[in-house]
Amino acid sequence: MGNLRWWCGPGSGAWDWTWQPYAGVWLFVALLTVAYARHLRSLPRIAGTDRRATRAQIGYFAGGVFCLWAALDWPLGPLGAGYLASIHMVQFLLTGVTAPALLLLALPAATFARLDNSRRTFAVLDALVHPLPAFFLFNIVMTVTHWPTVVDVVMGTPAGSFAVDMIWLTTGLVFWWPVICPVPSRTNFGTMHKVIYLVLNAVVIRPPFVLLLFSQFPAYRKFELAAPIPGTDALADQQFAGGLMKIGTAWLMGVGIAALIYRYHRAQSPAGVAVETPRRDAT
Fold first, then answer.
1. Burial classification of residue 178, based on how many CB atoms lie within 10 Å of its CB (0-12 exposed, 13-18 middle, 19 or more buried)
2. Is 198 helix (H, G, I), strand (E, B) or coil?
3. Positive or negative, the Cα torsion across 195, 206, 174, 108?
4. How far apart, in whole angstroms, are the C-alpha atoms of residue 187 and residue 105?
């Protein structure tokens, strides 16, 4: 265990496929799992809701935790932290877009009933997860954390990589909250508005995308100066990262749009209206 590390950071030598444990990642995943289990046990019995998580919700949670583990642990963790810009972008798509949506889908109806009954928590949520600030926060963070100067400086240490990963996760939760969660209830932000919200995030052109895709020279010093991996090229890898930023984000937004439309039509059907729950009404 002499090679045990806390979090992924920039590579110090040539890449090899020797397994490298990252204790902080495993601890983070374990704490998240324990917190979810304790949260489910702590939920009160509220009329009209179920504090138990369904199999689907437990599956969502498992999927979200797996995305975080896969993005942050070996091999994607060290590859994205110090060798390949494209893997760095894959980490963002998993940590900042996919995992947050799955973790929110994993929350049972009683979670939101509790939040709705807490005035202080409701007031904070009402301001924090409003669709407009959530939209701008997500896009600003996505732009800043992929800007070459920020990546080269902030992600030069494991602590910096950890900070960026947690910012991605937190911002992703804020971004998806108004789409997935029913609290705070916003009657003027229905299914069509949610679809537009996701469409805008799918089609918007962010500055890093233009820089990564059309630059004639490598923009990231850390990836340009890293020990090369056979079969890779810093500029081609950077351009691939730019494509992943655009296509990957658009594809994930498309999945969200498809889910919204499916749930809307299901809710409108006679059978769906009869069995519809507050949790499904949220999206």
1. buried
2. helix
3. positive
4. 20
Residue 264 sits in which domain range?
23-222+232-281
> What's the mean per-residue pLDDT of the chain?
88
- Mean pLDDT over 205-219 rounds to 92
Which tens digits make up the pLDDT trace of 46-68? 545 556 788 999 999 999 999 99
- pTM to 2 decimal places: 0.89
The residue ranking higher by pLDDT, 24 or 2, is 24
DSSP designation for 250: H
Domain-embedded: residue 13: no
Can you say whether residue 195 is alpha, beta or left, with left for phi > 0 and alpha for psi between -120 and 50 degrees? alpha
Total structural domains within the chain: 1
Amino acid at site 103:
L
CA distance 205 to 201: 9
At 58, give phi and psi (nearest 5°): -65, -35
Do the domain assignments include residue 98?
A: yes
Mean pLDDT of 251-260: 96
Measured distance CA(102)–CA(69) in Å, rounded: 14
Decide: 157 and 215 in contact? Cβ < 8 Å.
no
Q: How far is 122 from 117, CA to CA, in rounded Å? A: 8
Sequence-distant (≥ 6) Cβ neighbours of residue 163 within 8 angstroms: 154
